[in-house]
Amino acid sequence: MAKEFYQPLSGNEMPRFAGPATMMRLPAKESAEGLDACFVGVPFDIGTSNRSGTRHGPRQIRAESCMLRPYNMATRAAPFDSLSVADIGDVPINTFNLKDSIRIIEEHYDAIVEAGCAPLTMGGDHTITLPILRALEKKHGPMGMVHVDAHADVNDIMFGETVTHGTPFRRAVEEGLVHGPSVAQIGLRATGYTAEDFDWPRSQGFRVVQAEEFWYKSLAPLMDEIRGQTGDRPMYISFDVDGPDPPFAPGTGSPEIGGLTLIQALEIIRGCRGLNMVGCDLVEVSPPYDPFGNTALVAANLLFEMLCVLPGVEYRS
Amino acid sequence: MAKEFYQPLSGNEMPRFAGPATMMRLPAKESAEGLDACFVGVPFDIGTSNRSGTRHGPRQIRAESCMLRPYNMATRAAPFDSLSVADIGDVPINTFNLKDSIRIIEEHYDAIVEAGCAPLTMGGDHTITLPILRALEKKHGPMGMVHVDAHADVNDIMFGETVTHGTPFRRAVEEGLVHGPSVAQIGLRATGYTAEDFDWPRSQGFRVVQAEEFWYKSLAPLMDEIRGQTGDRPMYISFDVDGPDPPFAPGTGSPEIGGLTLIQALEIIRGCRGLNMVGCDLVEVSPPYDPFGNTALVAANLLFEMLCVLPGVEYRS
Amino acid sequence: MAKEFYQPLSGNEMPRFAGPATMMRLPAKESAEGLDACFVGVPFDIGTSNRSGTRHGPRQIRAESCMLRPYNMATRAAPFDSLSVADIGDVPINTFNLKDSIRIIEEHYDAIVEAGCAPLTMGGDHTITLPILRALEKKHGPMGMVHVDAHADVNDIMFGETVTHGTPFRRAVEEGLVHGPSVAQIGLRATGYTAEDFDWPRSQGFRVVQAEEFWYKSLAPLMDEIRGQTGDRPMYISFDVDGPDPPFAPGTGSPEIGGLTLIQALEIIRGCRGLNMVGCDLVEVSPPYDPFGNTALVAANLLFEMLCVLPGVEYRS
Amino acid sequence: MAKEFYQPLSGNEMPRFAGPATMMRLPAKESAEGLDACFVGVPFDIGTSNRSGTRHGPRQIRAESCMLRPYNMATRAAPFDSLSVADIGDVPINTFNLKDSIRIIEEHYDAIVEAGCAPLTMGGDHTITLPILRALEKKHGPMGMVHVDAHADVNDIMFGETVTHGTPFRRAVEEGLVHGPSVAQIGLRATGYTAEDFDWPRSQGFRVVQAEEFWYKSLAPLMDEIRGQTGDRPMYISFDVDGPDPPFAPGTGSPEIGGLTLIQALEIIRGCRGLNMVGCDLVEVSPPYDPFGNTALVAANLLFEMLCVLPGVEYRS
Amino acid sequence: MAKEFYQPLSGNEMPRFAGPATMMRLPAKESAEGLDACFVGVPFDIGTSNRSGTRHGPRQIRAESCMLRPYNMATRAAPFDSLSVADIGDVPINTFNLKDSIRIIEEHYDAIVEAGCAPLTMGGDHTITLPILRALEKKHGPMGMVHVDAHADVNDIMFGETVTHGTPFRRAVEEGLVHGPSVAQIGLRATGYTAEDFDWPRSQGFRVVQAEEFWYKSLAPLMDEIRGQTGDRPMYISFDVDGPDPPFAPGTGSPEIGGLTLIQALEIIRGCRGLNMVGCDLVEVSPPYDPFGNTALVAANLLFEMLCVLPGVEYRS
Amino acid sequence: MAKEFYQPLSGNEMPRFAGPATMMRLPAKESAEGLDACFVGVPFDIGTSNRSGTRHGPRQIRAESCMLRPYNMATRAAPFDSLSVADIGDVPINTFNLKDSIRIIEEHYDAIVEAGCAPLTMGGDHTITLPILRALEKKHGPMGMVHVDAHADVNDIMFGETVTHGTPFRRAVEEGLVHGPSVAQIGLRATGYTAEDFDWPRSQGFRVVQAEEFWYKSLAPLMDEIRGQTGDRPMYISFDVDGPDPPFAPGTGSPEIGGLTLIQALEIIRGCRGLNMVGCDLVEVSPPYDPFGNTALVAANLLFEMLCVLPGVEYRS
What is the pTM of this model? Predict the structure, then answer.
């Protein structure tokens, strides 16, 4: 079967405020079969410790993606020219049971990975990255990671639980899902209980980039460095929308001031071009705290930029 | 081809806050072929004289329909047992050109009517009822109408224009689309320039029911009377969401105080059971003025109630 | 000088969402000279005990009045045919000094009263009714009053102060501004410290109508009774927007559940037709708590209805 | 130890917009010891099937209770004259684990019940009523119940789970926590899968009062009847804020149109006076969907009315 | 007739939250006669391709201008000392007919230009710049332009139409209204269909400054350069409020991330001092998407800064 | 009595969205006795010239402080290890009387100062800094000050009044409460009546830092300089939340564009480490204009940073 290249529905065929509510107005598909990359939603928020609402993230990100056209004016990436991309809908999580949901998510991503498709995930809270990494690791082995966040998310336990939105990367290390020296955590900051929150990841070889380190500065040099170090290792982007400073993305559950600008966020993603990216997520968009969708707009744009740096994307000259 | 009976996606298959953003979580279809009834969006707001935003109505009505289950607990209607119903998406109107949009809408509904399908329209401003009636009249001849609204919408011209959201029923009379003595306008009120606004429709044989007439009272007797008078004549429901009192449906462009309760709105629609209904619309939902979707929730529920009174719907005992 | 009859700017001359932000799109005048009635704003909220914000009330009421056309479809009142009405702007209160503001307001209304003009006031918190009554009493003597409110506003002192938004009618009695047996307080309810809050006004001859007394019932009979009792005595309407149940008018500072419907509010005002009305106010609209203007919309409509019951208004047949 | 009668902090000691953010500005206590009744929060929302956010319910209900004064002007109840009442804070639920939270809630209420204190619960989603009933049943045996809701909440399982916000009353029957013939469910309506949703409770002896049964009517006669039938049996009020029509209480997760008015809600609670009430809850307030607190205001008022009908409350003459 | 110098109404004469809702609290005038510069609103949004609502822009900009005092603390400009400036109200566009509105706008600006007055326009969507340029060109010939925007707005046709908010500068070039080499487009970015969107304006001699070019950098040097190149040529500022990054101005219809800061916006306008400025506009403020007016506040301030760089403004030492 | 060191309630004891609504979830205390530092609210907004609402500031700042953990990840400050800190509630101001409130505030702070406790004030509008300085001066003599603001707040009179939120620092100079050469005003900008607004403070020896001076630049060097100049002199921080650019802190009454970033705000506070700080305030947070609490979140974080720079705070290595 010849690969099909789908295009976002044009604004000259259907007004941008109308038509199907899929990501980027792409076709809706039942599965990842035959796709190079897929947008997939994980409407899960029961791993959240403060404000909830990320269960509605995928829907609002799709809604706010309606302005996105297929060509990246800044980088000249034309992802739909060379990749087959569609929206495969949401994972049917069990919203009453955290553990069962983790199982459902992992199985859902097993199928995506088996189809040879790179998942671009619309979260959902950060708990979901754990089962996604589990599925990806089965095929790709321990991955490097570009992790943007206000928090390290390496707690051991929270309120007695081992799997929450504050623990995924502790578990990922323990389970061998990531390769510590290929992990960069960018944007960490704010308050904690002890220095341990940032020292433990450092002890695992993570590059911990506190927000203060790059105030007023371009992150392009940092990304150059990361590209130099990770080589061909399979890489994953996990982007928590609380990485940017709250005024730039207020619709999230655990905002912390002093973070990234949207420009730095764009530099991080664009700086991943050339990495062997096997999957990406954008998590923690909580629509009830941003009813006009400004945070989801940021998320939709960053997801498009992630698509633009997947291996095999063509850049027009 | 055997008729297919579609069911809304169950909450036990996919959480209600997730899954496809279609009306009632029904399947999305490309056209009305093979359907008994269809939900269809008309994302049009350039006929609006005061606040705009109804272009986003169809999308928000669909979003707020996610709680709707297939069975009507009050009336025992089970519409999906006997009718084939799906969501056929939006009409690709030309948002820069009112007249061209009117033409596009009429042609789009011509195809629905030819398919033998009853359209349940999600507006959009009230201008759209004119091209819908034009398409329906070609098949059904002059229709009776249950028109719920704060305004009579029978202006001759507005700012020099003959086709706007304030003129559709003057045009409908002139073009012979409706049968005056079979038309009831319910909920009219507020301010105007002269008594003419309500006297002209009366002079055409319309039953004009000013809101004050039914304050504190059930509308069931009125609906009994209407059913008695209209017999088998093809009928249409045009429900402007500004018919209800603004606190009950604030997300609209021209709110007028002193209107219907939601209970009266339900009575009107439920009271249409037994009429020879050939189409229905719910117009003037303007999401920007109600970001949490309360008005769209009302609209989604009323559209389901309209579906429940279409000819051929089975009522369980 | 011949009296000039002003008309609201028509929607066919300037779109309703544009043009001057005056009440009902009437001309702006510098003073009440030559007018039969005037709309006047008192942007005052420093007498408020709970949530503030009514300083913005006049501006938002004017903004939401843009849909009002000159003719009352329900009552057939055409106030601009026989009265000269304009918007005379706001009273320049001293927002840092309650007592000085009270003085400023009284002096401002002295001039309105001297011009022979009936003031229709857009508040502002309820404190402002005291200086307004003081100015009116100089000309008209002790007045009767239709007072709609959730609270009796007859506290003796609050936090040691004698003039606040909770005390105006105690002061009005003490100063002889109102004639007790001609005062009706409608909609009173909720919680208090003792029964005294309602017993004291009763002891002054007030008719105290607790909200519960008229649940589910038309207020028309009550208004008939009031009209029968007050005869030709000069009358004043003081309408606190917290009289209606909070869902009907959420933008106010001290909401109490179990109140009037908007229909009852309309019945009260329309029921004042025939009284010797010398002034009216609509107070306690607090825009910050209702950013889309639903409460101000109610206020604008009720103020128009007040205008329609002023002595001398013509009713078309 | 002599019983202490606490009073809400007066508005003359501290402005109503300031001071401690406890329910009704009552003292904060560590436990229920020595109290006749207590306000207690259960900040739990992970049993919710649609929109979440009720975890913030207790905090917003407390905030909106700031206007409540100690005396009920309508019923003349003066609960603080004869009962010792305080706010004992929130239950420290485990927000990552539904089952563990159910255990924590039950244990927390065991202690309240042992202290001889009647709990007035601020939810939280409706799942929490199950562990509360479990704790109360140990002391009081099977209870009667006044259950106000849009939904019967008697599902057997949801998405494979037996304990969610849609199942508590099925479980309560199975576990013998309630006495079917002493249970009334008021306000049920909307859509479902089959008639079973309302037929099953009827088969257990529940009085199921669909919303339509009382449109336009006072609920006082129904409450008279309920009082006549339940005698001295221990009774519980479970009030889901989606019982009222959504415009009256929009801040909730599963709104359904056509429900109760606030007046009917007040009639239900006031109509419980004389019952042997052993506990009450007000659940499903979701602040993110009502940022200005209108729904929480309703909840705070209804909780005060519940306090007013507890056994032993004094009514002033 | 001696020129009159009007001053904004002082906060010591009328509180800032009250008084006339004109731009900067300046006098309202019927026409531009006798004025050096005027603020004028164009409440037009039917040329918009995505979210509408800019019809309300002029009103909200005026409301948010209430804090503006007459003297620029940063630049020492005192525009009201040497220029006669007032608010001449809104253009009475025909909101049902795009083409007719374009005609009305052009005629309205013909009169302003004939009066020798420089228009400072409050939009309205970007379509309106076309008829404004047409009117100005009749007097001034082809103009240079400082165009701030996320989009180039040089589409040839959109949905078959030649005049929309995405086409004005293609038309302006074709009609000879602008002088390409004197045009700078600043802030362009985001997604498109092809590189053509930015290459075409470059081919016309425009200076296209993509947002990325000036990330982290002052725009003062760019403005120095522009001033050096344009000499005495008549110049126009067209400022689309989506030029700034969406968090800085969320109330607009087509937001794109990665844009200007407000500081850069200020630098652009202040950097126009010394140019031969003949008119300015600030477009695309859509109040429904920013109910508290933050975007309109930005717009009001930028319009004041535009006034401060008009020829003839005095700067205090 | 041994000093008690209080810790914020941990997220593992009580979910962060629940529990006591005190600042940082610290214990509530009746007075400042025994404390080294205290958080105290001043719910006062009647000194405000434009939008009100800061009366609700303390409550929302406390609510948004729930995420704050005890350790500063950036600076390694651990304030609760070495200082005894609690929340002592609100000052019971008289909201109807500005002058009386000023007296109440001063007396309240007299007691705090006498207890040897450093007050960290949650405002309230900027008027409150005057009585706070008066109380502090009695013990500490004329203080230096780091004053962050968009406005100099050195008006002589406003609308005839000498004490308002625009005059505190004129009064502070006149009364000898501050030592001019030790005062820095940072972030000043926008519009005024004359250059006097900034020239007068300069004439008193203040360092006036206009916002433009530090656009794009770190404020760390400025803070180094300030630390070098003020030596051991008692210092006070007065931080008006309108110092930051409005997009970063929209919930305030008098926003002015072109201000500080949150990063600069953090640099200012962190740069105060080593100063002899005797008190701090964070004023002008107006919750009604930011219902989701983004501005209060900024305020809560900055107040924690202020605590971290009090003398005696331990920094972990």
Answer: 0.98
